[in-house]
Specification:
Structural class: alpha+beta
Strand content: 35-45%
Largest sheet: 6 strands, antiparallel
Radius of gyration: 17 Å
Helix content: 10-25%
Number of strands: 15
Strand order of the largest sheet: 10-14-13-12-11-15
Oligomer: single chain
Number of helices: 3
């Protein structure tokens, strides 16, 4: 897989994100990323922690946009997020920031995309190098990592001393 290929957002049918991911993993020329968050589900007889998609309705893939037909033919795929008929690439730093967060031990929550606030870069800790929007709450700070193309974001608490203006 050549790292020069861009990332794209794939819009999926409701609750088909994992099915789409599993089909795309089988394609040798596609790199796939489905960020998840653990949530407790309750049934009549038990509770279980289940991985849910962090951005419901979306899966991310890196592929050659000229060869998108096999992606569109996957069961559960609605479309590839596009502008003027061409798949819209997602900046590498947005995907890598989300990947770095979900691989860390930090607690995070999905949140609505927030356009206000300053762009910052984390300079210390497990998210060093990650760029996002900073929201201050009292003595604590929250960093918003976003995928602007799909209007989705995730927030994580950070030490305000660990960030600098981007």
């Amino acid at each position: 897989m050549t790292p020069a290929l861009p990332w794209f957002a794939i819009w999926t049918r409701s609750r088909h994100e994992k099915l789409v991911r599993d089909q795309l993993i089988k394609k040798s020329d596609v790199d796939v990323f489905l960020p998840t968050i653990g949530k407790w589900s309750r049934w009549k007889d038990r509770k279980k922690k289940i991985d849910w998609p962090l951005f419901p309705g979306y899966c991310f893939a890196r592929f050659d946009p000229r060869d998108r037909l096999p992606i569109l033919k996957c069961m559960g795929v609605v479309n590839i997020i596009s502008f003027e008929g061409e798949p819209a690439p997602i900046p590498e730093h947005e995907i890598e920031g989300i990947r770095q967060l979900v691989e860390s031990d930090l607690a995070y929550d999905p949140c609505p995309m927030i356009r206000e606030g300053m762009m910052v870069e984390v300079v210390h800790g497990p998210l060093k190098g990650v760029v996002g929007r900073l929201i201050r709450k009292g003595a604590h700070a929250r960093l918003i990592l976003s995928v602007d193309l799909i209007g989705q974001a995730v927030s994580v608490e950070v030490d305000a001393a660990d960030v600098r203006l981007y």
